[in-house]
Structure to design on (221 residues):
């Protein structure tokens, strides 16, 4: 449905070209008008490590998306106290845009495997589409067993599209994205050991990291 909005959350520590290319794949496949990048303040499901200050991660996102009209940085979770729960962000966007626009919440296959541990995950399916990005070695399809048990009865499979239709009218959509094997963990490690990150992040982000010395003072975890 044209004119919709995608919600792409993460720590973006740092943002890299894998994030940007995946967002573009989602935007194009779903014919979305906008992708909102939502940097998390305190992600409840991330590994126990120190996350870079919000201001730096936000600045890198702004540098990375500058000049891309369909990409917007939305710091709503940085302004919210406590853990960054996706259900709160989705509800805030629905309140902002009203009932009309199509919303799509975007996450990776690994994150979707833990979706049953997310706050009010059953409610998320009734508020928006859920786009599950896949890339090798993950399968490009989902089975009913991949849907969280508490919500499974509300879905039916559509063999034509390969998606699952929720009783609310929303869908769970598996989407294969360009398989770029790039991770923020590897980028932090490269910087900590003095290695190049050229072509792994946008040039503006690379220049910022070079001038700021971010990630170079301590070994990445």
């Amino acid at each position: 449905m044209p004119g919709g909005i995608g919600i792409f959350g993460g720590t973006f520590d740092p943002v890299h070209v894998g994030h940007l290319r995946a967002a573009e794949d989602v935007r194009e496949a779903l014919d979305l008008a906008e992708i909102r990048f939502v940097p998390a303040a305190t992600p409840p499901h991330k590994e126990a490590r120190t996350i870079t200050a919000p201001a730096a991660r936000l600045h890198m996102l702004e540098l990375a998306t500058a000049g891309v009209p369909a990409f917007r940085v939305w710091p709503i979770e940085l302004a919210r106290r406590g853990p960054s729960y996706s259900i709160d962000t989705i509800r805030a966007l629905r309140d902002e845009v009203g009932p009309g626009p199509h919303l799509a919440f975007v996450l990776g296959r690994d994150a979707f495997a833990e979706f049953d541990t997310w706050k009010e995950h059953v409610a998320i399916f009734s508020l928006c589409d859920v786009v599950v990005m896949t890339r090798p070695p993950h399968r490009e399809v989902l089975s009913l067993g991949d849907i969280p048990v508490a919500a499974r009865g509300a879905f039916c499979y559509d063999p034509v599209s390969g998606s699952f239709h929720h009783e609310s009218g929303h869908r769970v959509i598996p989407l294969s994205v360009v398989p770029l094997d790039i991770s923020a963990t590897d980028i932090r490690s490269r910087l900590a050991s003095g290695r190049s990150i050229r072509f792994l992040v946008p040039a503006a982000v690379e220049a910022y990291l070079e001038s700021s010395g971010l990630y170079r003072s301590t070994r990445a975890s």
About this structure: The helical segments are 17-30, 54-65, 86-97, 109-112, 121-127, 149-152, 184-192, 203-212. The CA atoms of residues 31 and 146 lie 25 Å apart. Residues 17-30 form the longest helix (14 residues). Residues 4-181 form a domain with the Rossmann fold fold (CATH 3.40.50.620).
